[in-house]
Amino acid sequence: MIPYASAAEAEAALGRAMTWAEAAWYKYSVAMPDAWLHCHTTVILFVIYTITPLPLLILEQFAPSVILPYKLQPGVQVPLADSLRCYIEAACVFPIAVGFQLLSYPAAAKVLRTRMGLPLPSVRETVAQLVVYSLLEDYLSYWIHRLLHTQWGYEKIHRVHHEFTAPTGFAMSYSHWAENLLLSIPALAGPVIVPCHITTQWLWFSIRLIEGINIHSGYHFPFISPSKLIPFYGGAAYHDYHHYAGGRSQSNFAPLFTYCDYIYRTDK
Fold first, then answer.
1. What b/e string do you get for 186-209 counting C-beta neighbours within 10 Å, with b at 16 or more?
2. CA-to-CA distance for 123 and 127, rounded, in angstroms?
3. Helices 177-193, 198-215: inter-axial angle, 10-degree rounding
4. For the chain, N or C: smaller number of CB within 10 Å?
């Protein structure tokens, strides 16, 4: 909760006038407990997870001729019922996550040290933190993913996620509960090591979720793919091959950038 009784008091503490973004943030968060702001993360992710895969799903059902030329595995069609099953199973977790966040907030606040008030972070600070978070998350996720492809890890945990040899957007979160728990560690590592403002945290988790949905979409659109613009960016084609190989796969473990696969010779 912002510790200022008025906008004028906030500006006096800042020693300058608030930007339009800071003024909007002040109005939104001034009377809101920090625990509720913390829980916004789960609500935002739920909305993104619900909406982002829908355009491709709708086009598959009503305009397949438009979209199927870009499908990476055109011979495999994921039934609509299977996609909806993924969504329902994953969506059930979100209300539980909100409750857990509320109960664990005092401890989480000490670990994350997330800023909630003013000033808002600069664009430079936000971008720098997002780059650090992305590189760190990729490195840790790479090794956890390789561990999950050992015989024990695959048979006991990771095979659930690989039920889809041709993935779909909603399948991004379709995993064993232990896998979801393990892979949350790399995503949280950056904000724990380099604390940020809550708005940066929302942005980081949103970007990571959208990217996860994208690489599981099963489609590659060359005219809008970031793989041509961002060095070491894998994209949907890179991860789709990993699902295609399934339990036999010993390559393409990276979730976002491919530098670990390149260094450790597991890129294909």
1. bbbbbbeeeebbbbbbbbbbbebb
2. 6
3. 140
4. C
pLDDT at 195: 96
40 exposure class (CB count in 10 Å sphere: 0-12, 13-18, 19+): middle
Could you give the dihedral angle defined by the CA atoms of residues 4, 9, 14 and 17, in that order, rounded to the nearest 10 degrees?
130
Q: Residues 6 or more apart from 101 whose CB is under 8 A from it?
A: 35, 38, 39, 41, 42, 108
CA distances from 221 to 55, 68, 99, 139, 176 (A): 14, 11, 38, 26, 30
Q: Do 149 and 158 touch, CB atoms closer than 8 A?
A: yes
Q: What is the pLDDT of residue 94?
A: 81
What is the structure's pLDDT at 59? 93
Output the pLDDT for position 103.
Answer: 79
Task: Give me 208's structure tokens.
Answer: 């990571």
pTM score, whole prediction: 0.92
Residue 141's identity, in one-letter code, is S
Residues of the chain where predicted confidence (pLDDT) is lower than 70: 1, 226-228
Give first-to-last CA distance, the chain, whole Å.
49
Residue 101's nearest CA partner among 2, 198, 200 is 198
pLDDT score recorded for residue 1: 63
d(CA 189, CA 187): 6
Strand, helix or coil at 190?
A: helix
Rg (CA), the chain: 20
Q: Tokens 């720098």 appear where?
A: 128
Which two three-digit tokens encode residue 139?
A: 């490195």
**Residue tagged 């988790």 (tokens):** 205
Q: How many helices (H) and strands (E) does the chain have?
A: 13, 0
